[in-house]
Specification:
Elements (H helix, E strand, L loop, with lengths): L9 E9 L3 E6 L4 E5 L5 E4 L33 E2 L10 E9 L4 E9 L2 H12 L5 E10 L2 E6 L4 E6 L5 E4 L2 E3 L9 E9 L2 E9 L32
Parallel strand pairs: 3-7, 4-7, 11-14
Antiparallel strand pairs: 1-2, 1-6, 2-3, 4-5, 6-7, 8-9, 8-13, 9-10, 11-12, 13-14
Length: 234
Amino acid sequence: MGAGFGMARGTIGTVTEAAADHYTVKTELGEIYTVHFSVNTRILKQPPGGGGPRRGQGAGQGQGEGSDPEQAPMRTPPQAIKATDIKVGDVIAANGEVDTAAKSVGAVFILLIDPERAKEMRAMEAAFGKTWLAGRVTAINEVKVSLEGGPDRAPHSFVADENTTFRRRREPITLADVQVGDMVRVEGAVKDGTFVASSVVVMVPPPNGPRSGSGGQGEGPGGQGSGQPPLPPQ
């Protein structure tokens, strides 16, 4: 599923209505979506801790950083539940056909997010722009790098200084190696109104393309192919 709110082929949000054939959800961006389901929709419950294999650790986890899934410890898989097990106030992720104009999703599967995991996701999203950034590089002007994407899908920027580290996968690189179009994950802090990066990771999909659940929107969460960056992992 990946780890973030605002999926490209679906949505994630808090249930505000639970009906016989649909849920109404409010996303972290404040948008209201209708999630339609049927007897063919797989409805699952995420186990405590998130479930599934844990990919790479640190900044690259869940972001197509190429950690070896064979070495990742397996966790409890999601379990099938009934549609009526999902209640108002729950956080769900729905994947399927999206009608952005109608703000609806014809769900292929729905995942009930573990409450602790949902809490972590909200906390991490609240920290976006304060302690981390993610997005596609749109411009590089000396030490200033402009991005587009992230949970709010808006323009952002950061500056690098002599203490900023850069890497692609596990390889150290420099700012000169970062290119327009790269997807990056940035750690840092805001100083005098400017986000100063302490570390920058250029996210690279595995050689055979994004793996399911490896975090790839274009390369990034849940193999969504949108070009939008993932949210941070657990």
